[in-house]
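Q: Hi! First time asking for a complex rather than a single chain. Here are the components, and I think there are two in total. Is that enough to go on?
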Amino acid sequence: MAAYPAWDPESARAIVARLAHLEGATLPILHALQEEFGHVDPQAVPLIAEALNLSRAEVHGTLTFYHDFKTAPQPARIVKLCRAEACQALGCEAIVETLAREHGIAVDDHHRADALVETIYCLGNCALGPSALVDGELLGRVDADRIAALCRGQTQ
Amino acid sequence: MAPSTPMRVYVPIDAAALSVGAEAVAQAVAREAQARGLTVEIIRNGTRGMLWLEPLVEVETPEGRIAYGPVAAKDVPGMFDAGLFVGGVHPLRLGKTEELDWMKRQQRLTFARVGVTDPLSIADYRAHGGLKGLEKALALTGHDIVQVVKASGLRGRGGAGFPTGIKWQTVHDARAEQKYIVCNADEGDSGTFADRMLFEGDPYLTIEGMAIAAVAVGATRGYIYLRSEYPHAFRTMQRAIEKAEAAGLIGASVMGSNHAFHLEVRLGAGAYICGEETSLLESLEGKRGVVRAKPPLPALQGLFGKPTVVNNVLSFAAVPWILAHGAQAYADYGLGRSRGTLPVQLGGNVKRGGLIELAFGISLRAIIEEMGGGTLSGRPIRAVQVGGPLGAYLTAAQLDVPMDYEALAAMKAMLGHGGIVVFDETVDMAKQARFAFAFCAKESCGKCTPCRIGATRGVEVMDRIIAGTDVPKNIAVLRDLSKLMTDASLCALGGLTPMPVMSAITHFPEDFDRPPSLRQDIPMAAE
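A: Yes, that's all I need. Here is the structure of the assembled complex.
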């Protein structure tokens, strides 16, 4: 369960300065900011644009193109549930239905503050699905009860 | 065994093994050994690829490594009681790892060390044949290295199957102050995990392959673009690059030569399209992952406009073996225009899933039925998708096709990155066709209209077909739309999304003409 500091322009500026020398630094910077704050505040856009001599539009474009980058604070617990073909073959869609019906958890519902079950496509665990990724740990052979328990804050 | 020799136990650190409890098993082994006053060296290896047996624990004995699996932490005390370190009899004892049928049937060239060695030990890497290819390459001219790769018949393992040597030749012949080597590790296709397994189980192999490419074409910088869904592989590869640099394998000098090669691993950010090489290059440059029109070819104007070798992980990883053992030795595997070995990844609803490296030419049926043991649910196989989300669905009757690029292409299917996903009879192929469009709509970069708009129209048409509305008319629209996307899309995402759709409608027409009242989900069989 992650707890992140509030957005802070000074430490954001320091992160940008530390990575600005890289070739094609935008993605490494966005990843570093998200790792620090749990999301990338849109206030970072002008900071990055200035440091890398890019237009704000270019940085905004990159920030918003990729599924990974979030521009608002996220729930403390995020369960990434694989819904690609190999996990479909093992019933991941039935998990999604059971979560909604029996646990009141709607997948990809961003309105809940405590936990989010997010759709992801392929975790490379296709022989041991259905799979999920929680706090950087890969879980195999998951079912709806386990996903619901993870949403309640249970550790693996 | 001499009492001074610590007993050696292998517990995989591969993410798939961890996903079913390998960490708890490793801890249990350490705890149990301590409680019994035994000195044990626990090596965290990669996975052997027998994923249904994970966590697979191996013990080194005088007669070889003995495998136990699948092991739960609670089984560990009993295994110690049974004489674990002499390979004692226990219900989970499988026998000598090398002699298990699954391992014996394979021809492991690329995956020879995965699961065998300590992934981050350079000494282990070298002791098991590592760096021989790079050493050979350093004694050759760039031109000669390219000739060896050409003669091996190696074709790009990312899916397109373009001859690797010809790509290298183009970059070799280009004149530029800066050239790049880029490794495509954005393994986004569902059903594939070979790159992940290789990065976690034998990271130096890809580093060595990239270094050989750098020496061959005269490049001094390289990037590995790895998908963010693989945090374990990212950590292992980062540490491997640091260690390889510290050991002088890469960096300012490649193994003491006057070639420099600086390598970095970069994380993607959850965009499937970045597995397409030009979109990957845009992403590495810090931009939106939007596909570029070709020409210019990346080999001439690639990363930052410079000549760039872009290859898949498995292409780079095949090269050290080719250099070490010779082009002909590699070409002796395989058939027709598909030479060498192919790491097949078997997943989905299958009893025994995992990684199988074999010469091209084995039939899909042998892989799925003999090695895979049929479905996990025990129900009959209905459909098999080969080559990821853009690959065709085949029927159970079509599985005698050999695994090679041309044979699959001849039946309007594709090999792709070698992933096989098995579905049992509960699958609704109309829903799979709808998913193909929905996935394309979600992941389209938006640059070309056929993909951006076509995918969304495809979802709508499929919704009408599933609802039973004007089915014949809507199937005509579907065929027309698929033809347009195939012919007019800029890259493979829009261009190949019709492949799973059309294969589903061709081979499973009954699923496209069914009253909605009969379209109910059959629940999954309990395991």
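A: The helical segments of chain A are 9-19, 26-37, 44-52, 56-65, 85-88, 92-103, 144-151. Let me know if you'd like any chain examined more closely.
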